[in-house]
Amino acid sequence: MAESSRYALFKPDVLETVGYAYGRATSTERQGVYDVERLASGRGVDLGAFATQRGAAEVERRGVTEEEALSGIGTYVGSALCVARVPPGKPKVWDYGVVAGYTWCDRTITGTLQITFIEGTSNVAFVKEELQDLVIATYALRPCQMRGTADIMPAEMRSLHAAAHGHFNGVGEPARRSSTTVLKKLTMNLIDESQAVPVYNLDKTRIEFLKIEHILNYVFYQEGRRRAPQGMDVAASLFAPDAKPGRADDHGPHGHNSTDAERMHQHYDSDDDLAPAEPSRGDRPSERAKRGRDELPVEAASNQGDSRLTALRRRLEDDPEMVRDIVQLIAFRQSNLSNGSASSLVNTATTEPKSQFRSSRQQGIVHGAMTNGKYFSLDAQLFVETMQSQAKNFDYLPHPGVARGFYGWDFSFRGLTIRHFAPMDVEVEREYLRRYDMTDFSSKNKLPEPQRASDLADVLAALEVLGIGV
Which of 56, 114, 404, 449 is deepest in the core (most CB within 10 A)? Predict the structure, then answer.
């Protein structure tokens, strides 16, 4: 073999890769070192160029043939795969495991992977078209587990993994921690999160079995820097199951430190609780009247600006994002914040006389108390329209009755349940569209019956969807 054609398999980080990588010597030995460039093969086929210098002893002792290096087989050691195989007594299916090692035959130019599955380690022929390297969270979700390779073709398998990755991590949509929500949306089999699966520890070059729940929690909350629910402990690292408290210092979307569960219990139990507070005695009527007279010129000067914003809102009705921003701006202009009346924000959103949905005073007060952020300043009609226009962000199809109930937090005896927020698959969504008028926001369009929960996982999935909007 010519000195300029030496190939070697290098350890993780040597060629700036997380795992193993092949390199090619691009020079003859000079003073005990070689110039080495990283080879684009196997897991690193899409990596850019990288070059460095390595000791002659390392390059020569870790040398491989050109055929092996170009195949990329060694780069899969330690990786988590979805791979096609034939388990004993079963047809050819997709299964999930980690690569413990490999062998390469120079005579036949073929390779074999030693893959550790849940039930043990097996030899699997190396066929690049029948495997996919996965990030650890997608590997734990296992959407194609034990599905036949004729039922799900390789291109479909890759597409399902991309979709699962996007749903879980929030790529182009809200992130979903619930494996039930993610897999039901893909119409794939559900997983048992208490099950332990093999994971390769590169630092210690050994395989460890970790629970799916631990893997998903670590990636979603720790790596994703998200606030964990109250009572949940999230490990400091993937291979350190000794958990630590979740990120309690992070503020939620409401700008509070309380958890989602705590916020759900903060709604009012009776109409008496909704009564507005009495004005303080120190704020005498004469003082309020004087302050009102002083503000008249300011209000008159702002009327023209509000009129222009209202006209602009009507022209941009087909752009819900812009409409919402305009309405919020109008609300802030009318809120008299400069005089300390921040609570007036609840009542400043404009109410169009022709709106199909006109909220009651009680619903408006509850909405103002329970809502914050971008939904805070929307009037009732615009709120329900916005909920429906952003249906893709919630994974459920918001019937007008559900959106109306959500505006005023009409849970329990008022008819709304968390099951109204259950994720829907495509078939149920089509049936929903066929049966109900999704454009009628009036009270004549009654709240539909919710889907029944088959188990606790269905309830938790609905809670997760509901949590996105509160």
Answer: 404
